[in-house]
Amino acid sequence: LVLAVLLPVWIPVDYLLLPLTDFLPLAALRLGAGGLALTLYFLSSDSGSRLAGALARLAALLFLPAALYVAARLQLQSGSDNLLYGYAFFPILMAAMLAVFPLTLVEGLALGLPVLLGYGALELVLGTPLDPSWLGMLWLLSLVALISLWTQLSQLRMLLDLFRRATRDTVTGVFNRRNLTERLEAEHARWERHGRPLTLLQIELGGLERITNEHGAAVANRLLAQLADVIERALRPTDLIGRWNADTLLAVLPETDDETARRMAGRVREVSELASVPLATGGTLRAEARITVVAPVPRENLTRLMTRIDHKLAAPSRVAAVG
Question: Which pTM was predicted?
């Protein structure tokens, strides 16, 4: 949107500085580029969140000033000084634009390197080889591109850190209750709509309050984190696990019937014995986990299911306790 506004705004300046033969084609190109930028803005507003589409739109956003710069370079090559009139900074603009977006290293290089190589190739063809003026510009462009790349990675790391803090439990590192509830809601809706199997594992760390009183909160937290880690490793890639409350973890097992869930519960019970924390006074404190298999019953909405989990209540025919 900024490009759509600013590209045509420079037209009066071109009118004052350029001869009419140069002004008319460049004004038309600026208007066309502004229209395309406006179209891209509306396409981006109405589009989904797929990464490939976002990267394609970002590449198109870079293409607009690049095409305008090439056209200006060809139109004004007879008088290179005229390039200073609002066009010489376009390569710098393209490199600096990339700093706005949180990109990975590969994405940043894939979008930034063509700017550098394209500028160098264009000047080699149209300019004087090894001319200090454009070589100095290439050096400045490379510096801006490196700063943009560093900024992209910094933004990406910050956003990933914020995402992790918003979706993960600070003690165990698994999903927090809010995020796990959203995932459970989606799976429950699929169970209601299509009748797909859905089972939950409720894992309670026994004696957490006693451990906290006797050994301190740090030991209790480490033990709970160890328990969450070993269980997460034992689950399948499609399964989800999160912290439901102070002493309870909840694993969501999509596409899993009761029999398979009971086998999974037995496996979780076995690996939970591996969770342990060494004590400063000597010895090792091991986790004692109680695993309960819970499945939604017919016509049970999500609110009732969550209430049943919170109060450790379940329909007897759909529950199996392990350990």
Answer: 0.67
